[in-house]
Amino acid sequence: MTRLRAAPPALLAVALLLLAGCAPVPSAAPPIGGASAEVPRPADAVELTAPPSAAEAAPESCDPTASLRPAAQAGGPTLDRIRARGRLVAGVDQNTYLMGFRNPSSGELEGFDVDMAREVARAVLGDPAAIRFRVLTSDERIPALERGEVDVVVRTMTVTCERWRRVDFSTVYHQAGQRVLVPANSTATGLESLGGRKVCATKGSSSLAFVARARPRPVAVSVPNWTDCLVMLQQGQVDAISTDDTILAGFAAQDPYTKVVGPRLTAEPYGMAFPKGSEDFVRFTNALLERLRADGTWAAVHGRWLGPPPAPPAAVYRD
How confident is residue 74, by pLDDT bands cut at 50, 70 and 90? Predict the structure, then answer.
């Protein structure tokens, strides 16, 4: 097994926080020094012996990227409720650098997903600051929507047919793809070379289901947050992380002693998720996304966080 040099837990935690709020560490930076100290395995880490559920493994039978045709209507039951409250409640991440993370200098949530959620608040309420963020893990996203605790989830969420049965989605606002992150000195070339090795992903993610079904079969390790995966990789507790390339790019920017390997294994189209039956809000958001694609806002947000923008994902409608 190839391993990175372990840093003391306190130093490691500080380094991750600092790196999350600034530019990537140069590749020539010296290794973190100090004694090798084992970071405790996350209490919720689980090694899977089978795919998470039969439902996740089922083949898709619809076009999950197809959403409702846009309509910029002034109101509707969901929109009226949000406007009466005076703020949008959005589920986001705080652990994924570049997509949704907490800036340690300001304490503010930042990233591509966070900015996209603010654009929704701007469109609904006329103010991008009229928003309350609720931090969610991957596994908490759908339950939070089903319980009505959030109006929308903007959190690296892949649209799938299985998920459509429980929530509604916007059109695709970002196209990612699953790849693999390993220590820089690893000889692994992709998921196919990690049979029998420990590969980390978060509970409730489509990435975890894919790893658990891969052949030759890796040992899929489930954790609550992506940062748990990064710490476990740095401590040699897992051999690789496999998830969307947007998430892995943030890890590689934080830790120059890692590398992304192998081709894209899957297509991971991200959609904004809504409680089931929020038709007025879905159509309103799809009209907003059409405008953001056309007026350059989407490209500007992408450029701010993820680099030179490609063409934005084309919208697909089911009605």
Answer: confident
Chain-centroid distance, C-alpha 28: 28
DSSP string, 114-152: HHHHHHHHHHHHS-TT-EEEEE--GGGHHHHHHTTS-SE
Question: What single-letter DSSP state applies at residue 158?
Answer: B
Distances (CA, A) of 111 to 190, 202, 220: 27, 19, 28
112, 305 contact by CB (below 8 A): yes
Angle CA 258–259–263, to nearest 5: 155
Q: Residue 318: is its pLDDT beyond 90?
A: yes
- pLDDT at position 59, please? 46
Q: C-alpha distances in angstroms, 266 versus 123, 132, 263, 269?
A: 32, 32, 9, 10
Grouping H, G, I as helix, E, B as strand and the rest as coil, residue 180 is strand
CATH topology classification for 66-176+269-307: D-Maltodextrin-Binding Protein; domain 2 (3.40.190)
Structure tokens at 312: 């934005």
Encoded tokens for 204: 């409730």
Which one has a higher pLDDT value, 242 or 34? Answer: 242
**Torsional class of 76: left (φ above 0), alpha (ψ -120 to 50), beta (otherwise):** left
Instruction: Give me the residue spans of the domains in the chain.
Output: 66-176+269-307
For the CA atoms of 237, 245, 272, 148, what is the dihedral angle to 10 degrees?
0
Distance CA 132, CA 80 (A): 17
Vertex 282, ends 279 and 286: CA angle to 5°? 140
* pTM, entire model: 0.81
The 10s digit of each residue's pLDDT in 155-183 is: 999 999 999 999 999 999 999 999 999 99
Digit-coded pLDDT (tens) for 91-121: 999 999 999 999 999 999 999 999 999 999 9
Quick check: 285 and 152 in contact, CB under 8 A?
yes
Note the helical H segments in the chain: 9-20, 54-57, 77-85, 112-125, 141-146, 161-164, 206-213, 226-234, 245-254, 279-295, 297-306
* Structure confidence at residue 57 as a pLDDT band (50, 70, 90): very low
